[in-house]
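Section: Multi-chain targets

For targets with more than one molecule, the full set of components is provided together so that the structure can be written out for the assembly as a whole rather than chain by chain. Components appear in the order listed by the source. The example entry contains three components.
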Amino acid sequence: MTHPLLPKHFQQHVLNWFNKHGRKNLPWQQKKSPYHVWLSEIMLQQTQVTTVTPYFQRFIKQFPNLSSLAAAQLDEVLNLWAGLGYYARARNLLRCAQMLEQKYAGKFPQNLIQLQTLPGIGRSTAGAILSLGFDQAAAILDGNVKRVLTRFHAIAGWPGLSAVNKKLWELAERYTPIQQTAAYTQAMMDLGALICTRTQPKCDQCPLQTHCLAYNTGNPAHFPSPKPSKKLPIRSIQMLILVNQQQEILLEKRPPTGIWGGLWSLPECPSDADAKNFSKKHYYCETEKVRQAMQMRHTFSHFHLDIQAVVMQVNKWHPPLMESDRIVWYNVQQLQKKGLAAPIKKLIQQLNNSTYTHSNGIFGKAPRK
DNA sequence: AAAGCGGGGCG
DNA sequence: CGCCCAGCTTT
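Its structure, encoded as tokens over all components, is:
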């Protein structure tokens, strides 16, 4: 099959468009630095620019360079990451910084092979670091580029299929120029993010319109093919809101890997267990006034989590010393200082707000003025 | 409620 | 390899 456009011409259209309309003032473009490119690329995995921006700014304020990050504690990194999701990214980020310090004299290696051995860096992120950070000829294939290419060539089949993925990488590499790779790479991401959007693409503003196969056959939004859908299983748990006499709640640190790994969360109790017995056995709490406070559903990529919040008043607490790192009492007003998973923070805040409006909040009654 | 967004890790 | 895992935002 012949290509609708020579790579040289494809690049010219894309680069000309970028010069006029591309994004040149994103927070990670302020200073040309592989550290900033890397950090932003990790944050931008599965996460959009508008969400990432404030996180990125807080992050570089606290860790302005690679060596400061490499010296950080995991808790500090997770606190900055809390709410962004996919917390393995934060763990890998720290490990990667440490490896760069120890094995690479604090510099990013400038080749795909070595970059991809670093935790959290796969083929696309490695390409982004080389192209955006070092202006070297390397291709990326993120969601934006996938959308542009599947439409431009009207490639059917879900991009997660290995055959489709392989084809897309071939195209990505074919079009990536040797010169001006940084500008081209940013241009392709901008094109995908601003013009070749998932729904309602702005084809009338697209520099590739006249050669785009999907446009010319009438249905750009048909590409890329959707992921085969699956019914998600439902998992149910109770989350315990244990309130002591200082009106603090008990938080528990999650195990280092798995869901919300390393973040602070509420004590979790199987849905068929008795919350009162469970609190005593696992959290050393003598409780009373058990109240079913609220129900919420949080959906992960692979299951629904139905959460039943149970509020209990704690009268006595007898913790063994060894547990003091895993469980802490925390003032509800200071939640932003702890790395809490987003839905847990939301749940607590909703309960806390209802304290002032209903009689079913965390403290069971409106506070005295 | 469903879709979208990369990479790690396992068998 | 193919398959599972992970968490938000947007639509």
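The beta strands of chain A are 234-243, 248-253, 264-265, 268-270, 285-299, 304-317, 327-331.
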